[in-house]
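User: Study the shape:
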Amino acid sequence: MPASPPDPRPPRGSAPTLAVVVPATDDPPTLERCLAALQAGDRRPDELVVQREPGRSGPAAARNLGGEGTTAEVLVFVDSDVEVDGDALARIARHFEEDPGLTAVFGAYDDDPGDPGRASRYRNLLHHHVHAGAAGEAETFWAGLGAVRREAFEAAGGFDADRYPQASVEDIELGMRLRRNGRRILLDPRIRGRHLKRWTLASMVGTDFARRGIPWARLLLRERSSSTALNLGWRRRSSAATSVALLAALLARRPRAAAAALLANLFLDRDLYSLLARRGGPPLLVAGIGLHQLHQLTAAASVPVAVALHVAEGAQQ
């Protein structure tokens, strides 16, 4: 009888130990709810670090310092304004146990945001929608509720706290470094947490422009990346183009062109708008359509600024 071919899959490992690191240098009011959810889950952390020092430092530095004080095999990063689902840590542990070749895994916000404001509900449901539609092998990482093997994290040098002293795209950048080193990352939207953050119109625009849009675009330019991960997919880019076309048509007082652009936007993002309608009815749907245009226009406005900064940086080198 001929011998069976070797199994190409790596052997299943044992359940890893988990160290949960919660950055809390800004004295967050949601911290108690975050910690209570972690302790009440099906799988409790083997180690739990609440990193409060240095005060007012960004999450990149806090996560790095918090991880240094642990010994577990897997570092789990949970933002202080996230209430993890009861099975979140168990799902994370199971992924690493069943797939020894996996380097990192991250999840998503659930579809029931903690703050009742329309801006908060739109922003958090948008995040849920994007992650829920991108399950599988990932090109990036998310540290709101994400885990990485310690050895890979240390080999990569952790989060780049020098380049990102405040909350920005430090987790995306780490994911790109891990992938560049041949590491595997998985997005599992069944790993969920409830986002408790309160968003306002001003905080949404400021984040989309200065903390996400510009640094993300600069990162892609620096890495010469043509990534289509998460918000960068071609459908999302096309949707952003319709928002720009809608604004241009309104400024030019061309109602037919504006109506066509809006209809195209409604078609391209029909799944998101359906989610908003299911979770908040007509009021959230109407508000969400407007907020989505603002979100996409802000992101689009960040691109030329990022290009200018990238060119200026190159000229100085």
About this structure: Residues 42 and 250 are 52 Å apart (CA to CA). The two ends are 66 Å apart (CA to CA). The chain is about 50% helix and 15% strand. Residues 18-198 form a domain with the Spore Coat Polysaccharide Biosynthesis Protein SpsA; Chain A fold (CATH 3.90.550.10).
